[in-house]
Structures are given as C-alpha cells and as structure tokens.
Amino acid sequence: MEEVESEVKTVKDPDKREVLDRDNSQCSYISKDGVKCTQKHYLNLDHIQPFALGGKSSSENLRVLCSAHNQMFNRMTFEER
Question: What does pTM read for this prediction?
C-alpha cells in the first residue's frame, strides 16, 4: 500500500523567515487608497489562497498581516459565502 503525502498547514521555519523578511516584519495590508498598515505587533502569517480552499503553505502563498487585517480577510472570504 502506497503512502499518500497529505498537505499540512504547518509553515516551515525557512518559509516563515522568508515571508517575514520579505514583508519587513510588518503587516503587508495596503488599503484601496494606497495607505500601508504600519502594525509591527500581533502579526500572523496568512495564506493568500486560504489553506481551507486548497492554498499551499509556501512562501509564495503567504503574507504577513496584523490580527485585525487577518480577521478582516477571513470575514471577507468565509462569511460572505
């Protein structure tokens, strides 16, 4: 019987470091009028394409968001369905 490799939500440490460095360890949210969030505390790694919808846990699919913007994207993605 073959083992099937399942996708896991866990983000590997090198990917975490790459995303944090790329996003300058601050929230990467930019509003519609071009204002960038300056929050550097209460940060989360967020899946751009949500993990629950098939998104990968790779640096290309991750961004740094503060808790408030992470919750905002979660509401927009999952509560409007």
Answer: 0.84
